[in-house]
C-alpha cells in the first residue's frame, strides 16, 4: 500500500505503559534520525503487566487513538504486554496505518545459546498470554527456557531507579533460585528492562548475554515505512515530542534523560 508524499512528513508514534518504550524509540532514532517522533507514555496506569487483558486492551486503544489524532503515519506499540494483549485487534481496527509491535527476542537468544539456560524476564501478563506460550513452544525443544516474572521492576524504573543498591537487591532476589553459572542468555521481555542492563550484568556476570527486541522492532518499522513509501526525507534532523498521562514534569524530564 503506497500512502503518498504527504504521509512522508508525518511523525511516527510510539506508545508504552510508561517510559520503557523509549528504549525502542531510541533504537529507531539511531536507524532513522531524520524522522519526527511522538511518544506517549501511560505512566499514570503503569504497570500494565499486572492488569487484566481487557484493561490493557482499553488502555492500548486509547493510546493509539491519541497518537492517531496527532497525525502519525505509523504506530509502534513499544510495550510487550500491550502487544501480546491487543496488537491483533488494533491491526484489525486501524487497517490504514502500519502498526508494529514487540515480542520477547527469543529466537536470537536460542541462536546465540551455547547449551545453557535462557531466562526470559517479563511482566506476569506477558508470560501468561497465549502469544508468549506459542513462542515458548516453538523453541522448547531447542533450549532450556525459564520464564522469570518480574513484578515490581517496572515500578522501580518508572520512579527513576536504574542503578544502585535497591535495584541490585531486587535482581538478586529474583535470580536467587537459578544457578547463575548455567545461564547463557537473558531475554529482556519488557521494554523497560534495557534501562537496567548494567545492573543485570552486575548480578549475573559478563558471561550471560542480554538480548532485547528493540533492534528487531526498529528494523521492522523501517521496512514497513519503506514498503509503504512513507520514509521521511533523509536530509534533515528529526524532532521529538514526549507526552505522558501523568502530566508531571519529572516523568517528562526522566523520559528525555533516558533518550540520551
From TrEMBL:
Catalysed reactions listed for this entry: L-glutamate = D-glutamate
InterPro entries: Asp/Glu/hydantoin_racemase (IPR015942), Asp/Glu_race (IPR001920), Asp/Glu_racemase_AS_1 (IPR018187), Asp/Glu_racemase_AS_2 (IPR033134), Glu_race (IPR004391)
Origin superkingdom: Bacteria
Documented EC number(s): 5.1.1.3
Keywords: Cell shape, Cell wall biogenesis/degradation, Isomerase, Peptidoglycan synthesis
Residues the entry annotates as binding substrate: 16-17, 48-49, 80-81, 191-192
Alphabetized Pfam families for the sequence: Asp_Glu_race (PF01177)
Active site annotation, chain numbering: 79, 190
GO biological process, one term: regulation of cell shape
HAMAP family referenced in this protein's UniProt entry, alphabetically: Glu_racemase
Function: Provides the (R)-glutamate required for cell wall biosynthesis.
Protein name: Glutamate racemase
Amino acid at each position: 500500500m503506497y500512502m503518498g508524499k504527504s504521509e512522508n512528513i508525518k511523525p511516527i508514534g510510539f506508545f508504552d505503559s510508561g517510559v520503557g518504550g523509549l528504549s525502542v524509540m531510541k533504537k529507531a532514532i539511531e536507524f532513522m534520525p531524520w524522522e519526527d517522533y511522538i511518544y506517549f507514555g501511560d505512566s499514570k496506569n503503569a504497570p500494565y503487566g499486572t492488569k487484566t487483558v481487557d484493561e490493557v486492551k482499553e488502555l492500548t486503544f486509547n493510546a493509539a487513538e491519541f497518537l492517531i489524532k496527532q497525525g502519525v503515519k505509523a504506530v509502534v506499540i513499544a510495550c510487550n504486554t500491550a502487544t501480546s494483549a491487543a496488537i491483533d485487534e488494533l491491526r484489525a481496527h486501524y487497517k490504514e496505518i502500519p502498526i508494529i509491535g514487540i515480542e520477547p527476542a527469543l529466537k536470537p537468544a536460542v541462536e546465540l545459546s551455547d547449551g545453557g539456560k535462557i531466562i526470559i524476564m517479563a511482566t506476569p501478563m506477558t508470560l501468561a498470554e497465549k502469544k508468549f506460550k506459542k513462542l515458548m513452544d516453538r523453541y522448547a525443544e531447542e533450549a532450556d527456557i525459564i520464564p522469570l516474572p518480574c513484578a515490581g521492576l517496572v515500578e522501580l524504573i518508572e520512579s527513576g531507579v536504574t542503578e544502585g543498591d535497591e535495584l541490585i537487591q531486587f535482581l538478586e532476589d529474583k535470580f536467587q533460585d537459578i544457578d547463575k553459572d548455567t545461564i547463557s542468555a537473558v531475554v529482556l521481555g519488557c521494554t523497560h528492562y534495557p534501562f537496567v542492563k548494567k545492573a543485570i550484568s552486575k548480578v549475573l556476570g559478563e558471561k550471560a548475554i542480554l538480548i532485547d527486541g528493540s533492534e528487531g522492532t526498529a528494523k521492522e518499522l523501517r521496512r514497513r515505512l519503506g514498503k509503504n513509501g512513507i520514509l521521511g526525507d533523509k536530509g534533515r534532523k528529526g524532532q521529538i515530542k514526549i507526552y505522558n498521562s501523568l502530566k508531571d514534569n519529572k516523568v517528562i524530564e526522566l523520559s528525555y534523560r533516558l533518550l540520551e
